[in-house]
Amino acid sequence: MGEEESQSKGNLEEKRYSLTPDGLRWVQARIDPTRHGETIEKVRRIKTKYGALSLQDLLHYVYTKYPEMTTASEIKDKVLRRR
Prior knowledge:
12% strand; alpha+beta; 4 helices
């Protein structure tokens, strides 16, 4: 992995990782675009739709859209009260 960037907003820490050039070459060498093209395209769509959201915004989206998946969350109240 490449260098990590950290941002702390409230008590939620956001980290961003990126592949090094060697890591990117390693992944590209192992992808068969004819076999995995559909999966790669789905990942691109997800990244386009959600990639620009902050961690807090993404959590708020998930916690409000899928509340049944948050029953054991220790940060649920904090995430939902921020708006």
